[in-house]
């Protein structure tokens, strides 16, 4: 049974093996579109007109030509350029230099009678003389270039541009005669005085047209029934109307973020600079630090969970699942770190360009903010760690950027992805627990489509709720107790112990009977470690030492509960089983000694929030020149030893960060006040943006000070957001001061 030819997005199917005689009346005739081409006919293949760089078109031209075309197009797509003056520039800006030479150069010369660079865009449209040679055929035939065999071919009515420079005809007009079943093919020849083509006899054109049809390869001479010639004056503007769009001043105020970033000429230098700075910085950094970095405890726990494909672990399971997914493609630590760095910088740049888009800062402010985002060494060191910090930060920045867009221009698509990103961030780190509060506040700032946003927020909470229930089920199977995360209990007991230590033994109150054995062990620990010269760790305030130190009471009490049991070898089960008890103990201690908790935990933690310690980032690989076996196996290292090309593992470049963060925090708060004084409340876009940033800073501070350890790597999300807004506020104040000075001088 024969197959039937069909029309696709790139024109008629051209495989001769799929084409057999078809009756032309099987297809309905398309409405004539005049002389404007529907398709480009290039190397025996059809391309939709005007030409676009699509995956299907790249596939049609072949691998090598596709590579050349793609790089040629990328050059004009990325590099800044001015408005085109002539047709050649306009065509090259549309499809790249290679695309122009392959597809448009010869064709445009046929249409205009001269090189495209000699055709000024502002002079289009032009009047031309057209010689139309109409050839009546029994049927169309396709020439198979390899075998030289003609195959029957049916084309629906269309106009076709001929790119072959050896063929004088510029266009073919295909019209099917539904009554007789024959096909009219009109060849268009353009002529301008003083060319003598207009004066040539009809017989010459008739003979040339028949020969060129056969040369093109879509009609055999044997099928010619009749030939006729017609001459007329025409306007050929429609052929290149798509290039005239480049002369217009485009408005990017309503464009998508991708269009604003990559199509707006004002941003192209930022894009180029970003690519170059990222490439140079990261290359130099990886030359100095050829191995990834590992946090003792965290990194190896993630790798162990990924290696064993666990569903629950000491830390959230999102990052181990990411590591396992990434390992499908590569086991290289360099590629992992590269991916993390690119994700982080991409999310930061997305937020930066979003601020540019909505708040429209001055050019100098843009440059300062742009450099702050890119030339920031802490991002390189953070990305080099096998830890959830980088991916969580990238997801948090992406979530905040989506929330920013939803606040001003909510769409179902944005709200859907906001929920998905929020959910994935929550699986990476439970700090995202307070993000829905910020999202709700952002939704309330813009009342447009409020029900849609509430549905989106409900969807995000549903996803998080399903993950919470999944964890509860898994931990109940493991320990017999339903709990979301044992980490919460351990953290609560740890925090309480830092306050409990400073309660005088004479003022200690009795705890419930259930908690007395644990409380007794804690008190004995305090009594045995009062000499801080022998136990310097006891001088540390508001830390996480009590959670992880093997000699600390939380760890020793856990091992005592499972001594001589079959579960003593299952570290994860032992750790998870203690979560509910430690949670209850921590809450009881905090409730009994609120003043001590405020003085000895909340206040020191608040000071850390103001100037967060560099912590593990102060030394490469925590100052250790080796890794554990699980890291060696996972990344296929030849040995467990890791090295740098620097003499020391110390990272002094990050020492100034706590001071800088403190300064930015003060500037951010004063900036918020200054904007109100300067009348930012009269600019709703600026006011909403600052309120959202302030809400993030304030809620994160409350959550961090009370519930989580504070370190630079944990606080980079609010730090980067508040610093970005601080730079914007300073720029806004400087711009307002300059405007006032200008008014005074005039």
Would you write up a description of this structure?
By secondary structure, the protein is an alpha+beta fold. Helix content is 55%, strand content 8%. The protein contains 27 helices and eleven strands. It has helices at 55-61, 63-78, 87-112, 202-216, 241-244, 257-262, 265-288, 298-308, 318-327, 333-359, 363-374, 377-383, 388-408, 412-428, 435-445, 450-479, 486-500, 516-528, 545-548, 553-561, 571-577, 579-592, 594-610, 629-634, 657-677, 684-707, 712-745; strands at residues 7-8, 11-12, 39-42, 45-48, 127-137, 140-143, 150-153, 158-162, 171-176, 183-191, 224-235. The strands form three sheets. A seven-stranded mixed sheet has the order 4-3-8-9-10-5-11, with helices on both faces. The chain has a two-stranded antiparallel ribbon with strand order 1-2. A hairpin with a 6-residue loop joins β9 (171-176) and β10 (183-191). α2 packs across α3 (87-112), α8 (298-308) packs across α9 (318-327) and α26 (684-707) runs antiparallel to α27. The protein is elongated. It starts with 6 loop residues before the first strand and ends with a helix.
